Amino acid sequence: MSKTTQETSTSPAAPVPGTPEPLLRAEHLVAGYIPGVNILNDCSIEVAQGELVGIIGPNGAGKSTLLKALFGLVNVREGRVMLEGKEITNRKANVLVEQGVGFVPQTNNVFPSLTIEENLRMGVFLRPKTFDRRFEFIADLFPTLAERRSQRAGSMSGGERQMVAMARALMMKPSVLLLDEPSAGLSPVRQDETFLRTRMINKSGVSIIMVEQNARRCLQICDRAYVLDQGRDAYTGTGRQLMNDPKVISLYLGTLAEDEKAAKTARVDAAAEASAAADAASAAATATTPPSTTPPSAPASSPTPQDR
To answer: What is the pLDDT along the chain (308 residues), one digit of tens a residue?
Structure first.
C-alpha cells in the first residue's frame, strides 16, 4: 500500500507498461479560494475506469475543495488534472460536463420548484435529444423517480432529493462522477440507501470519486480511498487496508470509535442510575406505607322482604 507510512504527498506512480492510463488523475494540486491562501497543498489522486474511490479526512482537510478543483469551480494554481490522458485543468464546468465529468454538490443540488422530470431535463440541456434514452437508464436505476416524475423536487425528503441530484448528473452519461458528501444530513436509514445507491451507480460502469464524512461506511464500500490532511493526500490504500491501518485508526478513525464507546458507556451508566433510582424509590415507598386499616368487607346479607 502506497503512502500508508508517510504523511506527505509524492508524485503518482508512473503507469506500468501494459496497464491502462487512469481515467482521471490529479497531480500535485495547489488550489484555494482567495489569493495567497491555499487549501490544497500538493495533492495527488487518481481513479481508474470502473473504480469507486473514497476521500476521507478531518474537517477542513480540503476534501470538498478537491472535488471543486477537479470540476473547475476552484482555481488550480499549480499542478494539473488529466482526463483520459488529456489535460482539463481549470476548464469550465459546462465543458467538463460535455467531456464526461459529473458533479453532485453537497447542498442546493436540485431545482426545488421544478418537477423530477424537469430536473432531469436540465441534466441534458447540452444534449436535449438524448432525454428519452437516458431517462430509460435512470428509470432502471431509480424506478421511484420514473413513477413520481411529475412531483416537485422541493416536496421530497432529503434522501429523495439526493437521488434526483445523482440522477440529473447521470443524464449526460458521465465517465466519472464526483460526489460531495452524499450522506450528509440524512437519517441512518437514508444514509445506508445512499451508499447502496452509490455502489449501484458504480456497478453500472461509472467511475466515482466520493468525498464522505462517514469514514467507516465509505471505506466499507470503496475500492480504494485517500485520507486527506491539511490539503495533502496523507495515506492511500484499499478500504480494508485503511480500516486496519494503525496510524489511520489512531489519527482519523480512533476519535470516532472513542466517541461511540463513550456514548455507549454513558447510555449504560444512565440506564443503571435510572434503574437504581427506581429501586430506591420503590423500597422507600414500601417502607413508609402504613398497614392497611380498611375494615374487612361485610358478608352479603340475605335479601329483605322489601328487596324481594
So the answer is: 445 434 433 334 444 444 567 999 999 999 999 998 999 999 999 999 999 999 999 999 999 999 999 999 999 999 999 999 999 999 999 999 999 999 999 989 999 999 999 999 999 999 999 999 999 999 999 999 999 999 999 999 988 999 999 999 999 999 999 999 999 988 899 899 999 999 999 999 999 999 998 999 999 999 999 999 999 999 999 999 999 998 888 877 765 455 445 545 655 665 666 666 667 666 666 665 555 555 555 554 444 444 44
Structural Rg of the chain based on CA atoms: 29
Enter the pTM of the model. 0.77
Residues 6+ apart with CB under 8 A from 20: 48, 49
Please give the Cα distance from 51 to 216 (Å, whole number): 18
| CATH fold of 24-256 | Rossmann fold (3.40.50)
CA distance 49 to 24: 8
Q: What is the DSSP string of the chain?
A: -TTTT-SS--PPPPPPTTSPPPSEEEEEEEE-SBTTB-SEEEEEEEE-TT-EEEEE-STTSSHHHHHHHHTTSS-EEEEEEEETTEE-TT--HHHHHHHTEEEE-SSS-S-TTSBHHHHHHHHTTT-GGGHHHHHHHHHHH-HHHHHTTTSBGGGS-HHHHHHHHHHHHHTT--SEEEEE-TTTT--HHHHHHHHHHHHHHHHTT-EEEEE-S-HHHHHHH-SEEEEEETTEEEEEEEHHHHHT-HHHIIIIIHHHHHHHHHHHHHHHHHHHHHHHHHHHHHHHHHHHPPPP-PPPPPPPPPPPTTT-
Can you say whether the dihedral through the CA atoms of 181, 127, 206, 1 is positive or negative?
Answer: negative
Nearest one of 31, 50, 74, 24 to 205, comparing CA atoms: 50
